[in-house]
Design brief:
The chain has 428 residues and is of the alpha+beta class. It contains 17 helices and 8 strands. Helices cover 55% and strands 11% of the residues. The protein is globular. The chain starts with a helix and ends with a helix. Belongs to the UPF0597 family.
Length: 428
Amino acid sequence: MKQVIIDMLKSEVKPALGCTEPVAVALACAKAKELLNDEIVDCNIFVSPNVYKNGMCVGIPGTTRLGLKIAASMGLLGGKSELGLRVLESLGEEEVKLSEEYMDKNIVKISPINTNEKVYIEVNLKGIKNTSKAIIMTKHDNFVHLEENDKVLLNGEISLDIEYIHVDSPIAGITIKELIEEIEKMDLNDLEFLLEGIEMNEKIAKVALDNKIGIGVGYGIKKSIEDGMLSDDLMNKAMMITAAASDARMSGVNMPVMTSNGSGNHGLTAILPIAAYNSKYPQSEEKLAKALAISHGVTAYIKNYTGRLSAVCGCGVAASTGASAAVTWLMGGDYSQIEGAIENMIANLSGMICDGAKAGCALKLASAASAAVQSAIIAKYNCIVPPLNGIVGNKVEESIKNLGKVSSDGMTITDEVIIKVMDNMNKN
C-alpha cells in the first residue's frame, strides 16, 4: 500500500501552466498538429460539458484572451505535447500573437458533446493532404486515441455513455485512518518531491499579493490585515494566500502551479493552507511532506466518489477537506479529530456549486481555505458534527460516499442548468 500511495501521489501531483481544462485542450491540439504534419484547413474540437464549462471564461497564460479557442489556437501554433500540462510554456510572445490572429480567423470550432464522461477532448484536424485525430479522456493528460491519415496509432477504450469515477482506485479500498497511518510510516525521501508544491504555489500567490490582479481577493485581504480590519491569524493567512494564488492563476499569469488530482485550483487549496500553517508555526521538512501527502491523499480519496469534474466545486468539497485533515494532523490531532475535521467540512461546504473556471474562483478558494482551517481548529477541541447529520454518516468513509452520491448523481441536472445559463449569457 505504501508504493500504491506514492505512485498515486506522483500521478496526481504535478505542475501545470494555466487552467487544466483549456490546457488539456491545448495539449490535445498540439499532439494532433504534430501528427498532421501539414497546414491546417479545418479544426473541429469536441469536449465534454464539464470541460466546456470550465474553459469558457478563464484566462490563458501569455494572452489577455479568455477561453478554449485561444488555448486551442496556442496549442496548434506553438504547443509541444512532450511538455504535458505545461504545454503552453514553449510559446513566446510572437507565437502568442500569431495564435490570437489565428483564433480570429475562426478556423477553430469547439462544441460540447453529449456525454456523461467528465473529461473528454477530441481534436480532429484536416490538412491539405493529411488528417489527424487525438482524444484525451478521464484525466487531463491521458491520451486514449491517436490517429494519422486513418492509421490508428493508439486505440484505448472509449465510452461516452458511462461516467467514469475512480471508485476502483486502490486507495478507495482502505479507510482514512489507514491512509494516514501508511503516510506516517513513510520517510522524507518517499515524499520529498511534494515540497516543490509549496514553493511553486507560494510564488504565484506573491505576484497577486504585490499587485492587484483579477478581482484582487487576496490583495484585498492583505490590505485589510494591514489596516487592522482583519487580524493576522492563521485563518486569514490561509485565506489570503490561497485566494491570491487563484487571482493570479485565473487571470492567466504566466507561471506554473502544482496541481492536485488534475486541477491547479485543487492544488492551491490542498497546499497553501498547509503553507500558511508552516509560516505561523514552522515545521520540519518531513512533517510538511507528510502533511502534503495527507492533504493530496484525502483529496484523491474524495475525488474517487465525486468524479474528476462535477457540479460541485472540487476545491470546496475535496481539496479543502484534504487541507483540513492535514492541518488537524499538523496540530497534533488524533485520528478521530482528523476524521472530525473531514466530517465538519462535508457538513459545511458540500453545496458549493462549480460554475466554471474564472476570476471569481478566488472567492470560492478564499471560503474553502478559511473553512479548512476553521474545521481543523474546532475539531482539535473536539467540536465535531454528530453522525447522521444531513449527509454526514456513521463513519467518515460513509460521509464521503454520500458526498459523492450528491455530487455525481444528485446534481447532474444542476450541472446542465449551470452550463445552459453560462452558455446563454455568452451568446447574448
